């Protein structure tokens, strides 16, 4: 098996494993262990791919292509660019942590649960490697199916409303994207993302963008976000905000900006305004949120806005920073949601009014939450700082006020994260915090320490991503030349 | 001396195989002892469908050059053969589904009545199938009307076969009255077209219209409109859909499953053939008319389905909305549209049949009509059927869990290629609306709060839960076809492409 077929393997291995879990009558323990094993195998395959990846090579790598139906020139075409490699990496790492968490807490109905988690892994990897529009759309939609059931079955008390909202919102965007991609594909004669020429149609651009701004989400399309993030099981919220939402910003980069350069610059100001609103409004809401998950959920909205500012600033620094920030925020929010899960397990609640004083006698929890929190508020030297700095520098090149708004929002980030840390770890002991509530156990540490470790490595060497996402010295030119 | 036409027996062999099996099944009603009558009749019916499948596939392979046979009354071409193969496949699944379930499923049905008329049921099913396989190949207005009545009459009786139940009788009567209305419209339309052109053959009509420059003639246009309405009745497209929810709800569920899949295949395949072959000069009229019907079906079907609690009614409205989708493919009147239609029919038929089959299983357990409420927990109790329903519902909604997704893509692509971007938007919005009620089924099966779940074993009619191996097999076939059509797009499109070559585009 050559390395290029590893891309297909990354997609098909979890899907196949999901099928096996559904069909074979395995025991609860075997099912979970198999799922964890497969998710670790995914990480291994990805490391093998990353080790052999040529970051200076223009064009698609690890590509595979086969005709799906030739009638309308649709093909199964997968492959990776530098930035998609990083997003695939983010996906497999976060999914491994989330599946591990599900195994650790022993979710009910394990065969259905782990099968769906693996299905989600395959679909999400598929989104980041698909190089055919219809294939991309199929994976983009396929992510919804397991998420719908995962939230609807294993979620909190308000899960039914949350799932309906989540699905209707995202499908509205997706179906407009379907219309847009049909029009685009039939106009240019191919659905291939690599072969397809850029288009100047503003309507098609808007169709695609609509799907992406809902998925990301940007203001004012974030209506689904708070409910979904609060009601989902913590590990599902983790991948929802850490990985799945990244499909939205990835789509902006890979399709909206790369395939529609003229409309993208025509609507640049509009989208920057929406992104800035998401950033500021999200930060303010996060500051006001009354519970752990609320803060992380709204901060995800803010971060999506920041990433979109980086992408639509249209500058070299902005693009580099956006990709770095996608990965950094993905890891941060996955860790934070998993931490929220561990705290909820100990106290049965995430409400700040009922929490507090958890640092006493729980050094591991305090250290991890503190570390992730500090990275998340972009303290200088952290991965998030590098990402935000690049984005703001890129935005500054566009116009100084975008950078000013962004910098202001970073101050807000410090406020809401410190508020979260103090409300959970410090202050007087909350009414639901029992003395018997344990520190993080070995199993939880085994999930969280690697995530934080990766974040620390990225903090030490952010250039590993920001200099290895686009071939050549100028991302702008690479994107303009369609990554060729 | 009466001149008899040359008969190409092979061309109509599918029909004869099915009719022959029908006669054997009917004879078994008197010749075979009651104890094994059900098994015997079901076996004969199954073999008949397999035989029909074999001959229609053989015909497909052997009819590369489509032409008319038997006094130019019947088409021997790939369009006919492919539709026949799909119909026989549906028939086979229906036999599997009915073998344990028909005619009486209800809790009120008396035990000794349960095997009443089982042989007649299978005979009717095969006769109906034979009528449909004749219908899709008919080449003039006479055979069109005859075969339409042929399969309709069989369907009327099948709807009312569970005669202990008022709902079933009511469904049969409603279908009879409203269906006759549709047939009468079709007949009247045919008469008007004949009056205008003095021809009954589809190709001759087109020829006569061209030669005598009749295009736009009032009589002809009126006739065309009534023919479209007649076919619209059979395809249950709005505004000719009023009978659909009531009949689908009242008829025994296996019959509903058969009707929702097979009748649509027959009506839509034939509809495109008639419009394209007999009225090409009026394309500027009927493309718009059919597009209007498609939009009406999408709007009415989807909006009405939103408020249904009864699952069979909901699926009935969903079938109306899918008729709308397939009529988009018909309305564009291009080879791409024809391919899209043929492709769409395969996953649609599988999903529609499968969904009703799952309803039949639940109905059997509960002994009462299935609603969204008493579906609670079904997914966990019967994992295979639950997962299958999950696939069917997501597939109906156009999520990529089955060929329905590619079908919608093809239909919308055909509409766009025709220059109807507005129709693409309508289709997309309709899909969005449909999402709500399809997901409602998944929600009901898996996500209802535990206090609403029915604890303990469901009440089963007549003792322990039946193994229902045949039902599971039927659902399994539907599942494999609907998911498989997502992967095997190319082969299916190739089949559809060759079939569409038979039509004059």
What is the molecular shape of chain A?
globular
| Rg calc of chain B | 22 Å
Spatial ordering of strands, largest sheet of chain B: 1-2
Proportion in β-strands of chain A = under 5%
* SS-based class of chain A: mainly alpha
What value does the average pLDDT of chain B take?
89
Element-level helix/strand string of chain B:
HHEEHHHHHHHHHHHHHHHHH
Beta strand % of chain B: under 5%
| Low-pLDDT runs of chain A | none
| Main beta sheet of chain A | 2 strands, antiparallel
Total DSSP helices of chain B: 19
Order of helices and strands of chain A: HHEEHHHHHHHHHHHHHHHHHH
Termini gap of chain B: 40 Å
Could you state the oligomeric state of the chains shown? heterodimer
Uncertain segments of chain B of ≥5 residues (pLDDT<50)?
455-464
Let me know the largest β-sheet of chain B.
2 strands, antiparallel
Principal-axis shape of chain B equals globular
Explain what the structure shows.
The complex is a heterodimer of chains A (484) and B (505). Chain A is mainly alpha-helical and 484 residues long. Chain A folds into two domains: 1-266, no CATH class; 271-470, no CATH class. In chain A, 73% of the residues lie in helices and 3% in strands. Chain A is built from 20 helices and two strands. Chain A has helices spanning 5-23, 28-52, 82-105, 110-129, 133-142, 144-154, 159-188, 202-215, 225-231, 234-259, 261-266, 268-288, 292-313, 316-347, 363-376, 383-398, 400-425, 442-460, 463-466, 475-480, and strands spanning 61-69, 74-80. In chain A, a hairpin with a 4-residue loop joins β1 and β2. The model of chain A has no long low-confidence stretch (mean pLDDT 91). Chain B has one domain (9-458, 466-500). A two-stranded antiparallel ribbon of chain B has the order 1-2. In chain B, a hairpin with a 4-residue loop joins β1 and β2. In chain B, α5 (141-159) packs antiparallel against α6 (166-197). The longest helix of chain B is centred in the middle third of the chain and has 32 residues, at 166-197. The model of chain B is unreliable at 455-464 (pLDDT under 50). The chains are: A mainly alpha (484), B mainly alpha (505). Chain A binds chain B through residues 22, 67-72, 74, 109, 134, 137-139, 141-142, 144-145, 148-149, 152-153, 159-160, 163-164, 167-168, 171-172, 175-176, 178-179, 182-183, 185-186, and chain B through 339, 380, 387, 390, 394, 398-401, 405-406, 408-410, 412-413, 416-417, 421, 424-425, 428-429, 431-432, 435-436, 439, 442-443, 446-447, 489-490, 493, 497.
């Amino acid at each position: 098996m050559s390395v290029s077929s590893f891309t297909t393997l990354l997609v098909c291995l979890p899907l196949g494993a999901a099928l096996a879990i559904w069909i074979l009558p395995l025991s609860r323990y075997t099912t979970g262990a198999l799922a964890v094993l497969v998710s670790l195998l995914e990480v291994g395959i990805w490391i093998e791919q990353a080790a052999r990846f040529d970051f200076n090579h223009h064009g698609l790598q690890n590509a595979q292509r086969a005709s799906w139906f030739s009638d309308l020139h649709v093909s199964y075409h997968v492959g990776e660019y530098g930035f998609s490699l990083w997003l695939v990496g983010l996906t497999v790492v976060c999914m491994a942590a989330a599946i591990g968490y599900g195994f650790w807490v022993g979710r009910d109905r394990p065969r259905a649960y782990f099968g769906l988690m693996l299905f989600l892994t395959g679909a999400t990897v598929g989104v980041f490697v698909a190089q055919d529009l219809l294939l991309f759309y199929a994976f983009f939609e396929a992510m919804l199916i397991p998420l719908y059931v995962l939230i609807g079955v294993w979620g909190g008390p308000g899960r039914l409303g949350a799932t309906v909202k989540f699905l209707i919102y995202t499908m509205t965007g997706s179906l407009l994207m379907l219309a847009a991609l049909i029009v685009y594909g039939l106009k240019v004669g191919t659905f291939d993302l690599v072969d397809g020429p850029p288009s100047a149609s503003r309507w098609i651009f808007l169709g695609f963008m609509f799907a992406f701004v809902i998925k990301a989400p940007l203001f004012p399309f974030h209506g689904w976000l708070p409910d979904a993030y609060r009601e989902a099981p913590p590990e599902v919220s983790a991948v929802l905000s850490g990985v799945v939402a990244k499909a939205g910003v990835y789509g902006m980069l890979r399709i909206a900006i790369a395939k529609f350069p003229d409309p993208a610059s025509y609507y640049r100001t509009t989208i920057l305004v929406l992104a800035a609103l998401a950033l500021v409004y999200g930060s303010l809401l996060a500051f006001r949120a009354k519970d752990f998950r609320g803060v992380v959920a709204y901060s995800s909205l803010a971060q999506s806005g920041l990433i979109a500012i980086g992408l639509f600033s249209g500058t070299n620094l902005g693009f580099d920073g956006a990709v770095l920030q996608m990965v950094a925020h993905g890891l941060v929010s996955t860790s934070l949601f998993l931490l929220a899960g561990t705290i909820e397990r100990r106290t049965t609640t995430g409400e700040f009014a009922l929490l507090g004083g958890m640092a006493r006698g729980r050094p591991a929890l305090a250290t991890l939450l503190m570390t992730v929190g500090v990275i998340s508020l972009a303290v200088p030297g952290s991965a998030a700082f590098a990402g935000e700095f690049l984005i703001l520098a890129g935005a500054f090149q566009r116009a100084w006020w975008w950078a000013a708004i962004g910098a202001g929002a970073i101050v807000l980030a410090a406020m809401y994260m410190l508020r979260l840390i103090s409300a959970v770890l410090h202050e007087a002991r909350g009414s639901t915090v029992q003395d018997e509530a344990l520190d993080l156990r070995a199993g939880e540490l085994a999930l969280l320490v690697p995530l934080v470790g990766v974040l620390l490595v990225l903090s030490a060497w952010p250039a590993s991503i920001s200099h290895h996402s686009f071939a050549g010295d100028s991302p702008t030119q690479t994107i303009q030349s369609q990554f060729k | 001396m009466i001149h008899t036409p040359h008969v190409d027996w092979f061309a109509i062999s599918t029909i004869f195989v099915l009719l022959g099996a029908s006669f054997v099944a009917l004879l078994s009603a008197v010749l075979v002892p009651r104890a094994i009558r059900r098994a015997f009749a079901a076996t004969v019916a199954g073999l008949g469908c397999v035989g029909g499948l074999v001959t229609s596939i053989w015909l497909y392979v052997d009819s590369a050059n489509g032409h008319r046979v038997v006094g130019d009354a019947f088409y021997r071409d790939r369009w006919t053969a492919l539709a026949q193969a799909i119909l026989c496949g549906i028939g086979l699944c229906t036999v599997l589904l009915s073998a344990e379930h028909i005619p009486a499923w209800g809790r009120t049905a008396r035990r000794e009545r349960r095997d009443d008329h089982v042989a007649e049921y299978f005979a009717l099913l095969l006769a109906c199938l034979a009528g449909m396989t004749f219908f899709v190949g008919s080449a003039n207005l006479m055979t069109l009307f005859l075969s339409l009545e042929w399969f309709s009459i069989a369907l009327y009786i099948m709807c009312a076969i569970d005669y202990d139940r008022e709902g079933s009788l009511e469904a049969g009567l409603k279908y009879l009255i409203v269906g006759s209305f549709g047939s009468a419209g079709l007949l009247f339309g045919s008469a008007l077209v004949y009056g205008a052109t003095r021809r009954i053959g589809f190709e001759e009509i087109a020829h006569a219209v061209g030669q005598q420059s009749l295009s736009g003639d009032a009589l002809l246009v009126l006739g065309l409109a009534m023919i479209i309405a007649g076919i619209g009745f059979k395809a249950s497209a709005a505004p000719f859909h009023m009978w659909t929810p009531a009949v689908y709800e009242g008829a025994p569920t296996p019959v509903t499953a058969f009707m929702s899949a097979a009748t649509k295949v027959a009506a839509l395949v034939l509809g495109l053939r008639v419009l394209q072959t007999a009225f090409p000069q009026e394309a500027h009229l009927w493309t718009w008319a059919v597009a209007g019907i498609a939009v009406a079906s999408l709007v009415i079907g989807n909006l009405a389905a939103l408020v249904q609690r009864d699952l069979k009614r909901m699926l009935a409205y969903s079938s109306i909305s899918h008729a709308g989708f397939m009529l988009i493919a018909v309305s564009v009147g291009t080879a791409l549209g024809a391919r899209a239609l043929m492709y769409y029919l395969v996953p649609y038929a599988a999903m529609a049949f499968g969904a009703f089959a799952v309803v039949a299983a639940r109905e059997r357990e509960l002994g009462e009509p299935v609603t969204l409420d008493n579906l609670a927990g079904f997914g966990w109790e019967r994992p295979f059927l639950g997962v299958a329903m999950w696939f069917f519902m997501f597939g109906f909604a156009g999520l990529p869990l089955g060929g329905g997704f590619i079908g919608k893509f093809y239909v919308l692509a055909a509409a766009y290629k025709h220059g109807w971007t507005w129709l693409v938007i309508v289709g997309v919005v309709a899909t969005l609306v449909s999402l709500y009620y399809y997901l409602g089924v998944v929600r009901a099966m898996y996500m209802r709060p535990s206090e609403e779940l029915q604890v303990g074993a469901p009440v089963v009619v007549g003792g322990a839960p039946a193994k229902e191996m045949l039902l599971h097999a039927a659902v399994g076939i539907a599942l494999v076809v609907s998911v498989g059509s997502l992967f095997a797009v190319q082969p299916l499109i190739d089949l559809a492409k060759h079939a569409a070559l038979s039509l004059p585009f």
